[in-house]
Every structure is written in C-alpha cells, then in structure tokens.
Amino acid sequence: MKKLIKLFVAVYLRLVVKLLLFRNRSYIVAITGITNKSTTRKAVVNALNGRIKQSIGTTTKGYNTEVGLPLALLNIELNDQKLFTWIKIVLVAFVKAVILKLPDILVLEFGVSEKNDIKKLLKIVKPDIGIITNIGFSDINPQTSINEILDEMKIFVKALPKNGLTILNADSLEWALLAQVSKARVVLYGLSDNANVQGSNLLIDTTGTHWAIDGYKFDTNSIGRHHLYAGLAAEAVYRFIKDYEI
Amino acid sequence: MPRQTDDLELSIIKQIEIRASEKSDVVSLAQGIPSFDTPDFIKNKVIEYIQSGRVAKYSLAPGLLELRELIEESLELERMYYDFETEIIVTAGSIEALTATFLTILSPNDEVILLSPSYVSYLQSILIAKGHPVYVSLNEADGWSIDIDKINKAITNKTKAILICNPNNPTGTVYSKKDLLSLANIAEQNNLIIITDEVYKDFIFDKETRETYFSIAEESKYRDRIVRIYSFSKAYAMTGWRVGYLHTEQSLAKKILAVHDTLVTCAPVVSQYAAIAALQMNQNEWKVYFDEYKTRRDLMCKKLDEITDYLDYIKSTASYFIFPRLKTQNIKHYVDSKNLTFDILDKIGLAVVPGAPFGPSGEHHLRLSFGRTQEDITKGTERLLKYFKSL
User: Does ipTM come in above 0.90?
Assistant: First the structure.
C-alpha cells in the first residue's frame, strides 16, 4: 500500500512539475556526480548572481531525488511521511504549479546512487546545461558499481540538447567517454592543460581556497580542492550563458 | 603487572543508572538522555535506507561521503570551514571521537588540562590514553567562567592539550569569546591542542547568547590546533544511535583516522544514515523540542527555588543540566556528594549525579538533568525536598 502511494505521488508530482516548468519555461542547469553537487550548485548561483540580467533560483539541500526534486521546485517542505501530509502535498502541489513564478534560470542537483535514478529525474526535468562533478564508487549505495554510475552519467549527457552545454571535469578519467556521447557542446574544466576553463595557482591555506582563471583571482573561505572544481564549473556556466545570451 | 585499565571504573553516572534500574519507582534526573524519541522524519528515512539494502556494509573509515559533505555544509553555516574529504571524521558518538583524539596525541604521562567541573567521562578518556588529567577550577562566583590565569599557571612542559566542553556539562555555562580567544592564545604560545566538545551548542536558551555563540573553531588562525567534537545524540534525541563527528586540520585528522579505524572501523552505518536524515530535517522542527527544554529548565528552577534551604544554584544558560551547590551545613549527616547521592537513591528513589566526579570543584554539588519529562522534574524535585526535610 505504502509503495503504491509513493508511486502515485511520484507520478503525480512529475506531471504537476511538468505543468509548472511548461508555464515558466525556465532555463535549467543540472549538476550530477557522486559528490560536490551541492557546493557546485551554490558556486553556480554565486557565479551568475549579479553578473547576468536573468533571475537565478536554486533548490535546497538534499532535494535531488524523484520525489525530492519536484517538491523543491514546488517549494514544498516534507517533514514527515504521514498519509495526511501526502494528501496535503497533492493538493498544494497543483495550486503551486498553477500560480508559482519560477526564476529565468534554475540550478538543480540530480542525485544518483543507483540504476535508473537519472532516467527518473529526466522524466521530470530536461536540463539545458549539465555539469558532472565526479564519478566513483557511491558509498551511499554499496549495491551500485562504478560502471553503473558511469552509465547513468552517459544517460544524463545524452539528454542534453544540441544547443546546450556539457561541462566535464578534465582531471577525471572518464571525461572522454562522456564527451563522445554528448550532442551538446563540451566544455572541460580542471587543472589539466586540456581544460577550457583552466584553474591555476591553486592554494589551500588556513584562510581558504584560492585559485586563478586566466589571471583573475578567485577565493573562498571554504577549504578543499572540491571548491576549486565547483568554482571552475560555475565559471564555465557563466561564460556560456554570457556568450550565448541565453 | 599493572594494566592500563586497572585505574578505570565505570563512570559514576552509569553506576547510578545501573543501581536505579534495580529498584522500582525510581525517578531519574541523572543521565543526560532526552526524554523524546528520535524524530519520525529520521526514523522513516532510516527505514527506507535499510529496506534499500544500504546499511549492511562498512562505510569508508571517515564516514559516508554524503554525510561528510552535509557536515561540511552545516559547519559553513556556523562559520567553520573544513574539507569533508580530509578533515571530517564521523565517529561512534562524541566519546569515541574524544578517545581516538587522546590516543592519537598523547604519549604516556602527557598532561591534559581540563576544567573543573566538566563531564565525568573525560577523565576515563584521558586515562585510557595513558595521559594525566590536570584539573583547573572554573570560577563559580563568576558564573563558572574560565580563569585564564589559573590555566596559564597549570601549564608544564608535559602539557599537551586543553579540553573544554562548551556549553559546559554540568554547569550549563557558555564561555565568552574573549576567554576562548585567550585560551587559544595560550595554546598557540605553548604549542597545545585544544579539544572543544560542543554537543550542547544547540541548547542555548538565552537568545542573545545563542546568536553570539562563538566556537573556537571559527577562528581560522588557530585551526591547526583545534579538534572540535559534536554529537547527534542530544539535539536529535539520538543517544542510542551512537553517532557524532570531529573535525580538525587534515594532518591531525589523518592520524586520528588511523586510531578511529582501529577502534571501530567506521561509525555504525545505519546511524550515519540517521545523521544524514537529521541534517536534512527541517531545522525548524527542533524548535518544538527547544521550547520544551526551556520550559523544563524554568520548571526545574522554580522547583529548586522551593529547596533553597538546602541548596543554591546558578540558572543554566545552556545544556540540560543544573548544577546546584549543596548547603552542607543544613544537611544533617552530610559526608560528601557521592554518599549523599546513593542515600537519596536508596531512601526516596531519586537518581541524581554527585558533583565530585566532575572534578575537585564539583564536590558539594549535584547534577540534575532537565532532559526528562516535566512530570519527572516535578516528582524528582519534590522527592528531593522531602528527603532533605526528613533528615
């Protein structure tokens, strides 16, 4: 019974969100990978905010699954799994889908931990720009192999439109495998020489993480190499949106 | 041949709880256990994770990547910047974090300065790592504040670390930013590590104190010598799940990780999922619990106001403990806090914790927990009054 309710809610929310997105026609930037999705999402929002004329929006933490993503887009919080809560959500979701005004650009996370996760999310949202942070063993689900995660990423890349953008980590081993299935233009980011958005002068110290792109300095108080990657991917998004006047 | 564990004994809090469990109709204001169950949101999420087959295997030694990422994000909201990949370790509760840290940093007979009174089990953690605890009294007359001069004087060439509990268990004190920075300065001058246990940081009842709460780990200048510890036990009513974390600069984290791996391999994976759910939970839900704890504190203070012939107390700013001082001259046949506690348990069925095990300046105090229900608080304090009057 519980499974049936969950299935119904998932299908219903998908349809409702389709209505919401159809009404608003927001431009979608989606981020997937094993880790660093949330940091990259925030970095993209920071990189775009105030630098382009369009309005930017994003979701909150953890809302990156088949049910979580629609709820995030509809701006609905799920605090418990009681039947009454779901009934309320079903009613509120439709109203929100009809009246909610979304920003011009939406930055979303696509959570992936097992086979078909990406397919399910693509049924809800079709991204225009896709970022892959990294691919590796997902310890969030020991039942899933790296190859299965890689296949999910290929599905994600294949779904990006011709006039869209695939943003891949040049420092990862898998970028070439993913680039070859992309219809969209591919931009690489990283420290490697083949990166289109190449970071340099990386410094991590007690004050934060610091790097440069084409001579321009970037800093964050946050510590760790993953912040560099988030920043580089975000810059790739900014450049594309600016150059192509999305 | 003496063994390392010969000096260890079960902490007094657990001794009291065991003795209390052997009796009927005991009201316990002893152990720091929230009376609430773990929130439904967390339990339901964990059930989903169990059913999808995700909890049966070890995680990576430092913990699930997703959990560490969430921890990094939650720390950033509190102005603390640590790399989830190399500087955060998920542990089997805060006491494992503490023990792993001491086993890492101490050589035999190294000294650790700890404030008195502070949490009972710190002592055992230091002893098991062959360290030597050096108590420095807090200033009770000044609301249990830190006495920086006394700390300075207690430092020797064997001192390796200073351990603080902020907010402090059992006094409920929140230390000032000024004192904490002075402490960090002392640590810098003497090349010491500061271990800060902040499991009660979510229980600060005064709005202004809560909004200006300062963790020493916010100060990036000192991040190379800070180990900060947090547990999900108290704020999320998850004491039984045994999950917490520590964060510190990466070279020390790497060393602690090796010890953590030796002790527990990894924190219980099912509990790590519970921690993920806790961090994803709408944090406004916590307000319901918080308001109730505040009500309970006020109730306990009101009830203690009826016993002022026998004790006086400083109203707790934080945590869920009050640490009243006994007016020993008014208590007939008084020997010490430990004897009194066992007598109270035996005669009127009330479990409370004696002050002495919290450190030398804890003697002649009792620790009372208001983590329990309002009914328990009312019953317990009424029994205490009855006990004193019956002497």
Answer: no
